[in-house]
Amino acid sequence: MPTTVLRSCNLCEAGCGLKFEVEDNRILSVQPDENDPYSHGYVCPKGMAIAAIHDDPDRLRRPMRRNAGGSFREVSWDEAFALAGVRLRDIRAQHGADAIGLYFGNPMVHNYSGIIMVGALLNAIGTRNRTSAGSQDTSPRFAASYYLYGNTLVMPIPDIDRTDYFLCIGANPMVSQGSGMVSPDVRARLRTIRERGGKVVCVDPRESETAKVSDEHVFIRPGGDAAFLLAMVHTLVETGRVDREAIRSVASGWDEIERRLQAFSPERTSTITGVDPAVTRRLAGEFAGAKRPVAYTRVGTCNNAYGSLASWANDLLNIVTGRLGAVGGAMFALPGLDGSQFVKFGGMNGHDRWRSRVRGLPETGCDLPAAILAEEMETPGAGQIRAMITVAGNPVLSTPNGPRLDRALDKLEFMVAVDMYINETTRHADLILPPCWALAEDHSEPVSPSVALRTVVRWGAPVVRKHADERGDWEILLRLAQELGGGPTGMKWMDKLLGIATRFGWRYNPEQTLDLLFRIGPHGDRYLPWKKGVTLAKVKQSPYGIDLGSAPPGFRHRLHHKDGLIHLVAGPLMRALAELDKECEEANRRTVSAAADGLDLLLIGRRELRSNNSWMHNVPALVAGRERCVLFVHPHDAQRIGLRDSQPARLESRVHAGEVPVRVTDEVMPGVVSLPHGWGHAASAAWQSVAGARPGISANDFTDDQRVESVVGQSILNGVPVRLSTVAAEKAA
Asked: Which CATH architecture group holds 151-335+563-572?
């Protein structure tokens, strides 16, 4: 007899509600849950295909060891863990902890038990050569939050359901489902803004899915977001639309900021932004005149040359207009599981506390930029990465200059991958330790509650049972940590005590840590029997969790600076401001626009609703239909170069050149070309049959690992200088 299991989706921040029909440990169907308090029956194509990932015949079920010729064979878990322990311990003993590098991908952000054990593994290794997918798309936001509010994980969230003027810059929430703001079914939410008399404005180099449903779309040159936002604030100051005393009462450093803003008029910045000064001034006036406006930036803004400064400038606009902490503005979550406390007490709160060995790039929240990986593997000396552990990540496709990293991985002394697939990265691993798919584990979102304005504490039971020879992510990571002398907490004294307890039958389970985090969180019972707070036991009693209501207005309850103020001035951000000022000056002095080396176009990425991870490309339903990995080229550029729609062209950057299929479209602005990320599966075709049949091209083959953002040092993935030519012309040359 089939049973129904309710569960939130773990594929992105939205966490849409799903209903699974299960019989004999098999998933019979997946349906949207109309009673889910977040998604109300909405679910995207990824969520509907979630069972196909579980059933994928290409998904690994047993540990794999690589043979000398590059093929793989199955080995037992005991053999795999023993080999991993011996090799990693030997390399650490000979070369130090930093000789082991670690990269973890974004699926860990939606896996509470896994992310807890990533921290434990890192503490057991002791390495500073830690990177992640977040260092590719979110470190600028983390750094801005750290300097403004005192904590990397305190992030303002647009109150999209109550705003009347939604200014969306460098973000595509129609596809991301609200990255940095848990908002399933963004299309409906944007529609209701207009229905209540509001306006949606999208500022983007591409007419994205969000731009298509907005009231107004403004093209902006890639990398111009910070200058555009500063020009808006400049306009408000110039026209007397800010309350200086109100700003000084909540923030330090305003007088210095106001002085620096004088350099960023709409006219002076227009060379960089490509936005007509009259448009910038009009939008600034509309924003200040709206009753409940809010400005929102995300990945597109983070991934450009001034990502940290742009994230800071976005918040500055909300602050000077009184929209920070205001209903309909940029508010702060008060989650049941408070990630800001986790990063604070876990030592992950900070920026530039140490730097990479070769290039001196700074850490952010304990992560070094992923742009360091290849050079740290290639460059001899103390601290050279000789062994690598990847967890649910594919950095060959998701980090810059993928071909260089591909070659570097092949020369490592040892590599372990915790992954379900043999892919472009894990094919280099000596050992692949495959976890069961997430549906066979219990689920509670560890990070998304920090960017959700509705506070709901949830937990979901496993949809299916693990097979006897399967391991969860946390079990694999815990065993690796134990092989390296650690344990579940990452604290040596505590892990030693727990090790003694195991001799008497005690066994660790991540639910114990989850209960702890709930109970010590803002809504927890603090282990006080007379306090009616949240506990895991109480959460489990409700299929939809515990609804604790909307986030409260205000922001002082989320500030971590000791003086209780927002800090507008920080050295790294002010240096970036000076760099942008200088770039504006140089741009306005140039009389002839000439790109270096003939790289006269700017490459940006894009994401589609069916694809936010490379491993999803092995699901037939998510890659069916028209070819998606194509280069968007504006008709003017196509005509100038001599390209026609659906023909291949040669795309070239400083680090790579290759053929790409072209789609001629006015969806991108002139001078800009766009290629989606996550593709490039030719190297893994032998192990991923569906992805291998539609390999595509990796956008990060063309990104430059030597071009990095000015504050956090992350790769510049949007605004990559490239040249485009016809294949026939290139062959003739």
From this structure: 3-Layer(aba) Sandwich (3.40)
